[in-house]
Amino acid sequence: MTLLHRLTGAPPGMPPRALMLRCSAIGALLAGTAGAFAAAGGWLSPAALTPARIVDRFERVNGPHPGFRRNHAKGLCVAGEFAGNGAGAALSKAGVFAAGRTTPVEGRVALAGGQPYAADAATTVRSLALRFRLPNREEWRTGMNALPVFPVRTPEAFYEQLLAGKPDPATGKPDPDRMKAFFAAYPESAKAAGLIKARTITAGFADSTFRSLNAFRFVAADGRATPVRWALIPERPAMQESASQAARTDKNYLFDDLIAQLRQEPRSWHLVVTIGQSGDATADATLPWPADRESLDVGTLTLTGATPEEAGNCRDVNFDPLVLPDGIAPSDDPLLSARSAAYARSFARRAGEATRPSAVAATADRGDAR
Ligand code: HEM
Question: Would you say the CB of residue 214 lies under 6 angstroms from ligand 1?
Protein backbone atom coordinates (compact mmCIF):
# COMPACT_ATOMS: atom_id res chain seq x y z
CA MET A 1 0.00 0.00 0.00
CA THR A 2 1.51 3.40 -0.98
CA LEU A 3 1.50 6.58 1.12
CA LEU A 4 -1.18 8.03 -1.19
CA HIS A 5 -3.38 5.00 -0.64
CA ARG A 6 -3.02 5.47 3.11
CA LEU A 7 -3.61 9.23 3.14
CA THR A 8 -6.68 9.05 0.93
CA GLY A 9 -8.06 5.93 2.59
CA ALA A 10 -8.16 4.19 -0.81
CA PRO A 11 -8.28 0.39 -0.89
CA PRO A 12 -4.88 -1.25 -1.61
CA GLY A 13 -5.77 -2.36 -5.14
CA MET A 14 -6.98 1.05 -6.38
CA PRO A 15 -5.23 1.79 -9.71
CA PRO A 16 -3.07 4.96 -10.01
CA ARG A 17 -5.56 6.89 -12.20
CA ALA A 18 -8.48 6.30 -9.84
CA LEU A 19 -6.20 7.21 -6.96
CA MET A 20 -5.30 10.56 -8.55
CA LEU A 21 -9.00 11.31 -9.09
CA ARG A 22 -9.65 10.53 -5.44
CA CYS A 23 -6.79 12.85 -4.42
CA SER A 24 -8.18 15.73 -6.48
CA ALA A 25 -11.68 15.14 -5.07
CA ILE A 26 -10.34 15.23 -1.50
CA GLY A 27 -8.19 18.27 -2.38
CA ALA A 28 -11.25 20.08 -3.72
CA LEU A 29 -13.24 19.12 -0.62
CA LEU A 30 -10.53 20.38 1.72
CA ALA A 31 -10.03 23.56 -0.30
CA GLY A 32 -13.81 24.07 -0.21
CA THR A 33 -14.16 23.67 3.54
CA ALA A 34 -11.02 25.66 4.27
CA GLY A 35 -12.38 28.34 1.91
CA ALA A 36 -15.72 28.41 3.72
CA PHE A 37 -13.91 28.75 7.04
CA ALA A 38 -11.72 31.50 5.63
CA ALA A 39 -14.75 33.42 4.44
CA ALA A 40 -16.61 32.94 7.72
CA GLY A 41 -13.60 33.96 9.78
CA GLY A 42 -12.45 36.88 7.60
CA TRP A 43 -9.33 35.14 6.29
CA LEU A 44 -7.99 38.20 4.56
CA SER A 45 -7.62 40.32 7.66
CA PRO A 46 -4.23 39.90 9.41
CA ALA A 47 -5.93 39.32 12.78
CA ALA A 48 -8.23 36.66 11.34
CA LEU A 49 -8.53 33.25 12.86
CA THR A 50 -7.24 30.63 10.43
CA PRO A 51 -6.86 26.83 10.69
CA ALA A 52 -3.09 27.34 10.94
CA ARG A 53 -3.46 29.73 13.87
CA ILE A 54 -5.69 27.25 15.70
CA VAL A 55 -3.21 24.42 15.18
CA ASP A 56 -0.31 26.73 16.15
CA ARG A 57 -2.14 27.43 19.39
CA PHE A 58 -2.51 23.73 20.17
CA GLU A 59 1.26 23.41 19.67
CA ARG A 60 1.97 26.42 21.87
CA VAL A 61 -0.23 25.09 24.69
CA ASN A 62 0.84 21.42 24.53
CA GLY A 63 4.40 21.67 23.25
CA PRO A 64 5.66 19.89 20.11
CA HIS A 65 4.58 16.25 19.63
CA PRO A 66 5.56 15.43 16.05
CA GLY A 67 3.46 12.85 14.24
CA PHE A 68 0.55 13.03 16.69
CA ARG A 69 -2.91 14.58 16.38
CA ARG A 70 -2.84 18.13 17.76
CA ASN A 71 -5.93 17.31 19.80
CA HIS A 72 -7.16 13.94 21.07
CA ALA A 73 -3.51 12.92 20.74
CA LYS A 74 -3.66 9.72 22.81
CA GLY A 75 -5.75 7.03 21.16
CA LEU A 76 -6.35 3.44 20.12
CA CYS A 77 -7.81 2.01 16.90
CA VAL A 78 -11.03 0.01 17.07
CA ALA A 79 -13.04 -1.90 14.48
CA GLY A 80 -16.45 -3.46 14.10
CA GLU A 81 -19.71 -2.99 12.22
CA PHE A 82 -22.95 -1.06 12.23
CA ALA A 83 -26.28 -2.83 11.67
CA GLY A 84 -29.12 -0.53 10.58
CA ASN A 85 -32.62 -1.50 11.80
CA GLY A 86 -34.48 0.50 9.12
CA ALA A 87 -35.93 3.13 11.50
CA GLY A 88 -33.58 5.83 10.18
CA ALA A 89 -34.52 5.28 6.53
CA ALA A 90 -37.64 7.47 6.78
CA LEU A 91 -35.45 10.43 7.76
CA SER A 92 -32.28 9.81 5.73
CA LYS A 93 -31.63 8.20 2.38
CA ALA A 94 -28.08 7.24 3.47
CA GLY A 95 -27.67 3.52 2.74
CA VAL A 96 -26.22 2.92 6.19
CA PHE A 97 -29.73 3.19 7.69
CA ALA A 98 -31.38 0.56 5.47
CA ALA A 99 -33.01 -2.31 7.40
CA GLY A 100 -30.71 -5.31 7.59
CA ARG A 101 -27.72 -3.45 6.09
CA THR A 102 -24.40 -4.14 7.84
CA THR A 103 -21.67 -1.55 7.31
CA PRO A 104 -18.01 -2.15 8.24
CA VAL A 105 -16.68 0.49 10.62
CA GLU A 106 -13.20 1.45 11.73
CA GLY A 107 -12.63 3.98 14.44
CA ARG A 108 -10.54 5.44 17.19
CA VAL A 109 -11.14 5.93 20.90
CA ALA A 110 -9.13 8.78 22.38
CA LEU A 111 -8.71 11.25 25.20
CA ALA A 112 -9.09 14.95 24.46
CA GLY A 113 -6.01 17.14 24.75
CA GLY A 114 -2.77 17.45 22.87
CA GLN A 115 -0.54 15.30 25.13
CA PRO A 116 0.02 11.86 23.54
CA TYR A 117 1.70 10.42 26.64
CA ALA A 118 -0.57 11.90 29.34
CA ALA A 119 -1.73 9.50 32.05
CA ASP A 120 -5.38 8.43 31.69
CA ALA A 121 -7.66 10.34 34.05
CA ALA A 122 -11.37 9.93 34.71
CA THR A 123 -12.23 13.57 34.05
CA THR A 124 -10.39 13.81 30.71
CA VAL A 125 -12.96 13.93 27.91
CA ARG A 126 -13.30 10.57 26.11
CA SER A 127 -14.00 10.39 22.41
CA LEU A 128 -14.99 7.92 19.73
CA ALA A 129 -14.42 8.66 16.05
CA LEU A 130 -15.89 6.41 13.37
CA ARG A 131 -15.53 5.85 9.66
CA PHE A 132 -18.43 3.94 8.09
CA ARG A 133 -17.55 2.47 4.73
CA LEU A 134 -20.72 2.48 2.66
CA PRO A 135 -21.15 0.72 -0.66
CA ASN A 136 -20.18 2.72 -3.77
CA ARG A 137 -17.14 4.16 -1.93
CA GLU A 138 -19.20 6.63 0.11
CA GLU A 139 -18.06 7.28 3.68
CA TRP A 140 -19.51 8.72 6.83
CA ARG A 141 -16.92 10.02 9.26
CA THR A 142 -17.95 11.29 12.66
CA GLY A 143 -16.07 12.31 15.81
CA MET A 144 -18.06 12.23 19.05
CA ASN A 145 -17.27 13.23 22.60
CA ALA A 146 -18.57 11.80 25.89
CA LEU A 147 -20.03 15.16 26.92
CA PRO A 148 -23.58 16.52 27.30
CA VAL A 149 -22.75 19.72 25.35
CA PHE A 150 -19.64 21.28 23.76
CA PRO A 151 -17.83 23.92 25.85
CA VAL A 152 -17.80 26.64 23.16
CA ARG A 153 -20.15 28.02 20.50
CA THR A 154 -17.74 29.54 17.97
CA PRO A 155 -14.24 28.84 16.56
CA GLU A 156 -13.07 32.11 18.13
CA ALA A 157 -14.21 30.96 21.58
CA PHE A 158 -12.45 27.61 21.01
CA TYR A 159 -9.22 29.46 20.21
CA GLU A 160 -9.49 31.71 23.27
CA GLN A 161 -10.38 28.79 25.54
CA LEU A 162 -7.29 26.86 24.48
CA LEU A 163 -5.05 29.53 26.00
CA ALA A 164 -7.29 30.39 28.95
CA GLY A 165 -7.42 26.70 29.92
CA LYS A 166 -3.66 26.12 29.65
CA PRO A 167 -2.48 24.65 32.98
CA ASP A 168 -0.28 26.96 35.04
CA PRO A 169 3.04 25.06 35.59
CA ALA A 170 3.00 26.09 39.28
CA THR A 171 -0.42 24.62 40.11
CA GLY A 172 -1.12 22.21 37.24
CA LYS A 173 -4.49 23.98 36.84
CA PRO A 174 -5.70 26.81 34.59
CA ASP A 175 -5.16 30.32 35.95
CA PRO A 176 -8.52 31.19 37.64
CA ASP A 177 -8.33 34.87 36.60
CA ARG A 178 -7.89 33.92 32.95
CA MET A 179 -10.79 31.47 33.11
CA LYS A 180 -12.94 34.14 34.78
CA ALA A 181 -12.15 36.60 31.98
CA PHE A 182 -12.89 33.90 29.38
CA PHE A 183 -16.28 33.06 30.91
CA ALA A 184 -17.14 36.77 31.16
CA ALA A 185 -16.45 37.15 27.43
CA TYR A 186 -18.28 33.93 26.52
CA PRO A 187 -21.18 33.49 28.98
CA GLU A 188 -22.60 30.56 26.97
CA SER A 189 -19.38 28.69 27.82
CA ALA A 190 -19.87 29.36 31.54
CA LYS A 191 -23.30 27.69 31.32
CA ALA A 192 -21.94 24.77 29.29
CA ALA A 193 -19.11 24.29 31.81
CA GLY A 194 -21.74 23.84 34.53
CA LEU A 195 -23.49 21.08 32.56
CA ILE A 196 -20.18 19.40 31.76
CA LYS A 197 -19.04 19.46 35.39
CA ALA A 198 -22.32 17.87 36.50
CA ARG A 199 -22.06 14.93 34.07
CA THR A 200 -21.82 11.36 35.30
CA ILE A 201 -18.38 9.90 34.66
CA THR A 202 -18.66 6.22 33.85
CA ALA A 203 -16.15 3.41 34.44
CA GLY A 204 -14.53 3.49 31.00
CA PHE A 205 -14.82 3.80 27.23
CA ALA A 206 -17.08 0.74 26.93
CA ASP A 207 -19.91 2.25 28.96
CA SER A 208 -19.56 5.86 27.81
CA THR A 209 -22.21 7.64 25.75
CA PHE A 210 -20.64 9.48 22.83
CA ARG A 211 -22.46 12.44 21.27
CA SER A 212 -22.17 14.32 17.98
CA LEU A 213 -22.84 17.57 19.90
CA ASN A 214 -22.99 19.48 16.62
CA ALA A 215 -26.33 19.37 14.80
CA PHE A 216 -26.60 17.92 11.29
CA ARG A 217 -29.48 17.46 8.83
CA PHE A 218 -30.85 14.14 7.70
CA VAL A 219 -32.16 14.32 4.14
CA ALA A 220 -34.88 11.83 3.10
CA ALA A 221 -35.40 10.34 -0.35
CA ASP A 222 -38.15 12.93 -1.01
CA GLY A 223 -35.75 15.79 -0.14
CA ARG A 224 -37.25 16.54 3.29
CA ALA A 225 -34.55 17.73 5.74
CA THR A 226 -34.71 17.12 9.51
CA PRO A 227 -32.38 18.70 12.09
CA VAL A 228 -30.70 15.97 14.16
CA ARG A 229 -28.05 15.27 16.74
CA TRP A 230 -26.92 11.71 17.43
CA ALA A 231 -25.53 9.70 20.32
CA LEU A 232 -24.07 6.24 20.79
CA ILE A 233 -25.60 4.80 23.94
CA PRO A 234 -23.97 1.68 25.43
CA GLU A 235 -26.15 -1.42 25.40
CA ARG A 236 -25.03 -2.45 28.87
CA PRO A 237 -25.96 -0.22 31.80
CA ALA A 238 -23.26 2.33 32.58
CA MET A 239 -21.28 1.94 35.79
CA GLN A 240 -20.13 4.99 37.66
CA GLU A 241 -16.38 5.21 38.14
CA SER A 242 -15.47 3.63 41.48
CA ALA A 243 -13.03 4.99 44.04
CA SER A 244 -10.68 2.04 43.46
CA GLN A 245 -10.66 2.74 39.73
CA ALA A 246 -9.96 6.40 40.26
CA ALA A 247 -6.97 5.42 42.43
CA ARG A 248 -5.34 3.24 39.76
CA THR A 249 -1.84 4.20 38.82
CA ASP A 250 -1.65 2.34 35.48
CA LYS A 251 -1.09 5.24 33.07
CA ASN A 252 -3.19 3.63 30.34
CA TYR A 253 -5.93 2.09 32.48
CA LEU A 254 -8.86 3.30 30.37
CA PHE A 255 -7.34 1.99 27.14
CA ASP A 256 -6.07 -1.25 28.72
CA ASP A 257 -9.54 -1.97 30.14
CA LEU A 258 -11.15 -1.55 26.73
CA ILE A 259 -8.57 -3.82 25.09
CA ALA A 260 -9.22 -6.49 27.74
CA GLN A 261 -13.02 -6.12 27.46
CA LEU A 262 -12.99 -6.43 23.68
CA ARG A 263 -10.76 -9.48 23.93
CA GLN A 264 -13.48 -11.13 26.05
CA GLU A 265 -16.48 -10.20 23.89
CA PRO A 266 -17.77 -7.54 21.47
CA ARG A 267 -19.34 -4.36 22.93
CA SER A 268 -22.40 -2.68 21.44
CA TRP A 269 -23.93 0.80 21.38
CA HIS A 270 -27.30 1.95 20.01
CA LEU A 271 -27.15 4.84 17.56
CA VAL A 272 -29.92 7.12 18.81
CA VAL A 273 -30.92 10.11 16.69
CA THR A 274 -32.64 13.06 18.40
CA ILE A 275 -34.99 15.06 16.19
CA GLY A 276 -34.84 18.83 16.57
CA GLN A 277 -37.93 21.01 16.37
CA SER A 278 -38.17 24.52 15.02
CA GLY A 279 -36.50 26.87 17.49
CA ASP A 280 -33.98 24.24 18.70
CA ALA A 281 -30.45 25.58 18.37
CA THR A 282 -28.62 24.07 15.41
CA ALA A 283 -25.77 26.60 15.43
CA ASP A 284 -24.92 26.48 19.13
CA ALA A 285 -23.36 23.25 20.44
CA THR A 286 -23.26 24.66 24.00
CA LEU A 287 -27.06 24.39 24.22
CA PRO A 288 -28.77 21.07 24.98
CA TRP A 289 -32.06 20.40 23.19
CA PRO A 290 -35.13 19.97 25.42
CA ALA A 291 -35.16 16.53 27.04
CA ASP A 292 -38.59 15.64 25.62
CA ARG A 293 -37.49 15.72 21.98
CA GLU A 294 -38.36 12.58 20.01
CA SER A 295 -35.47 10.19 19.55
CA LEU A 296 -35.11 7.21 17.32
CA ASP A 297 -32.91 4.12 17.72
CA VAL A 298 -31.63 3.58 14.16
CA GLY A 299 -29.25 0.64 14.65
CA THR A 300 -26.42 -0.96 16.60
CA LEU A 301 -22.68 -0.36 16.50
CA THR A 302 -20.67 -3.38 17.62
CA LEU A 303 -16.95 -3.05 18.26
CA THR A 304 -15.07 -6.33 18.01
CA GLY A 305 -11.42 -5.47 18.44
CA ALA A 306 -8.71 -2.91 19.20
CA THR A 307 -5.27 -2.36 17.68
CA PRO A 308 -2.52 0.07 18.72
CA GLU A 309 -2.12 3.00 16.33
CA GLU A 310 0.47 2.51 13.66
CA ALA A 311 1.11 3.26 10.01
CA GLY A 312 -1.84 2.39 7.79
CA ASN A 313 -4.58 2.10 10.42
CA CYS A 314 -6.72 4.77 12.19
CA ARG A 315 -3.55 6.76 12.83
CA ASP A 316 -3.60 7.90 9.23
CA VAL A 317 -7.28 8.87 9.07
CA ASN A 318 -8.70 12.37 9.33
CA PHE A 319 -12.10 12.00 11.03
CA ASP A 320 -13.36 15.13 9.28
CA PRO A 321 -16.99 15.71 10.38
CA LEU A 322 -17.88 16.99 6.90
CA VAL A 323 -17.14 13.70 5.14
CA LEU A 324 -20.81 12.71 4.89
CA PRO A 325 -22.79 10.34 2.68
CA ASP A 326 -25.71 11.45 0.53
CA GLY A 327 -28.57 11.70 3.06
CA ILE A 328 -26.61 13.44 5.85
CA ALA A 329 -25.80 17.15 5.48
CA PRO A 330 -24.13 19.78 7.68
CA SER A 331 -26.19 22.19 9.78
CA ASP A 332 -25.47 25.92 10.09
CA ASP A 333 -23.21 25.26 13.11
CA PRO A 334 -20.04 27.38 12.60
CA LEU A 335 -17.94 24.75 14.41
CA LEU A 336 -18.37 22.25 11.58
CA SER A 337 -16.41 24.03 8.87
CA ALA A 338 -13.86 25.19 11.48
CA ARG A 339 -13.37 21.60 12.61
CA SER A 340 -13.01 20.37 9.06
CA ALA A 341 -10.39 22.98 8.20
CA ALA A 342 -8.43 22.58 11.47
CA TYR A 343 -8.43 18.76 11.26
CA ALA A 344 -7.06 19.01 7.71
CA ARG A 345 -4.26 21.28 8.93
CA SER A 346 -3.45 19.03 11.88
CA PHE A 347 -3.51 16.01 9.56
CA ALA A 348 -1.24 17.66 6.99
CA ARG A 349 1.32 18.52 9.67
CA ARG A 350 1.35 15.14 11.38
CA ALA A 351 1.39 13.19 8.11
CA GLY A 352 4.64 14.94 7.18
CA GLU A 353 6.43 14.24 10.48
CA ALA A 354 8.36 11.27 11.85
CA THR A 355 6.47 9.85 14.80
CA ARG A 356 7.09 7.89 17.98
CA PRO A 357 4.93 4.89 18.93
CA SER A 358 1.61 5.57 20.61
CA ALA A 359 1.68 5.40 24.42
CA VAL A 360 -1.04 2.78 24.27
CA ALA A 361 1.02 0.54 22.00
CA ALA A 362 3.57 0.14 24.77
CA THR A 363 1.23 -1.84 27.00
CA ALA A 364 -1.37 -3.21 24.59
CA ASP A 365 -0.82 -6.52 22.96
CA ARG A 366 -2.05 -6.86 19.42
CA GLY A 367 -5.85 -7.08 19.45
CA ASP A 368 -7.95 -8.64 16.76
CA ALA A 369 -9.13 -5.43 15.02
CA ARG A 370 -9.18 -5.80 11.30
C1 HEM B 1 -13.71 24.77 16.46
C2 HEM B 1 -13.89 23.66 17.15
C3 HEM B 1 -12.90 22.52 17.14
C4 HEM B 1 -11.57 22.48 16.78
C5 HEM B 1 -10.71 23.63 16.29
C6 HEM B 1 -11.10 21.12 16.97
C7 HEM B 1 -9.82 20.69 16.72
C8 HEM B 1 -9.41 19.37 16.65
C9 HEM B 1 -8.16 18.88 16.08
C10 HEM B 1 -7.07 19.77 15.52
C11 HEM B 1 -8.16 17.52 16.16
C12 HEM B 1 -7.07 16.57 15.66
C13 HEM B 1 -7.45 16.15 14.23
C14 HEM B 1 -6.43 15.24 13.55
O15 HEM B 1 -5.21 15.51 13.56
O16 HEM B 1 -6.88 14.23 12.94
C17 HEM B 1 -9.41 17.15 16.79
C18 HEM B 1 -9.79 15.87 17.05
C19 HEM B 1 -11.04 15.53 17.50
N20 HEM B 1 -12.12 16.37 17.78
FE21 HEM B 1 -12.16 18.33 17.61
N22 HEM B 1 -12.15 20.35 17.43
C23 HEM B 1 -13.26 21.16 17.54
C24 HEM B 1 -14.53 20.82 17.94
C25 HEM B 1 -14.93 19.53 18.18
C26 HEM B 1 -16.29 19.15 18.46
C27 HEM B 1 -17.53 20.08 18.50
C28 HEM B 1 -16.29 17.82 18.65
C29 HEM B 1 -17.55 17.07 18.94
C30 HEM B 1 -17.74 15.93 19.37
C31 HEM B 1 -14.91 17.34 18.46
C32 HEM B 1 -14.46 16.03 18.52
C33 HEM B 1 -13.19 15.59 18.17
C34 HEM B 1 -12.81 14.20 18.17
C35 HEM B 1 -13.69 13.01 18.54
C36 HEM B 1 -11.46 14.16 17.75
C37 HEM B 1 -10.57 12.93 17.63
C38 HEM B 1 -10.72 12.33 16.26
C39 HEM B 1 -9.75 11.18 16.14
O40 HEM B 1 -9.76 10.27 16.99
O41 HEM B 1 -8.99 11.21 15.15
N42 HEM B 1 -14.11 18.42 18.17
N43 HEM B 1 -10.16 18.28 17.08
Answer: yes
